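Risk register update: the risk of archive-format incompatibility is retired. Evidence:
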Amino acid sequence: MKNLTIQILAFILFFSAGLQAQENHKEKAVHEINLSDMDNTKQFSFLDPLLKDTKVIGLGEASHGTEEFFTIKAMLVKHLINNLDYQVLAFEMDETVAEAINQFVLHGTGDPKEKLKSYGLYNSQTLYELIDWIRESNSKKKAEDKVQVSGFDSEAYWADPFARDSLMAKNFIDKMEDKKYMLWAHNTHLVKSNTWDITHSEIKAMGNILAQKLKDQYYLLIFDTHEGTFNVFEDGALKEYPFEMDKKALAVQDLSKQYPAFFLDASDPAFSKESTYPIAGLFANWQGKPKSMPAKATSDFDGLIYILKTTASKAIE
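Archived output:
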């Protein structure tokens, strides 16, 4: 009887420890994002230990025309600047346009509102407000501590889409200094491996090149969604389209029942249930019903921010 009691107690302790380990893992791997409290950048502090050895963080997006992506990324940029000493915000943007915006954030000169309004899907009120926030923040800093804006794209690259990513990667790497960088671009440019290349084109994404060079100093946070509306650039103006993706990976389907928006670490065992994770492919022009792009957790990305339902971006007022 005594032995049976000991065995039962041992089982209870083992079971409780297992539940606690699962709960601790959940707390570490999954973090709800409160979309109604986007002024509170502290809700992103869970990223701090994950980025302690990082020099470059990629902030991806499933589309260039999604308001929630702009909003969350803007808050992340503020958190990274205020708490982790990131000092350069580099855009998938023509470098001459970005330099004009850089002069505004450094010296208050020029009109970034007009630059953004005339630059396709970067016509975003939320992005403009972020740029103005950086300018205001810089006004209180010493010259050497000011945050800069740069662009790693060029209109000259657009004529050769097959070479564009390698050219953007070279442009970025050539300009790198001893600072911490935030990259703002589409998921397709920032992925760390070539899982997406199902046609075996052997084209490397910019992020693939960066990952090979920077190793663990490059951290990629992709953004994804399931349904809603988004903007494309059509006939010289923003145009809104509805969309709904096919079923998502099991890991995301289960969590989206609990949280409308959340972060999930790529190391979460839930990702291992399926060989790839399907990222929504929402591009700058309308291409019919959107298709997904395959990606592998940890190989292609380090973290996922998922918003179940998203809305089209808001143009500059």
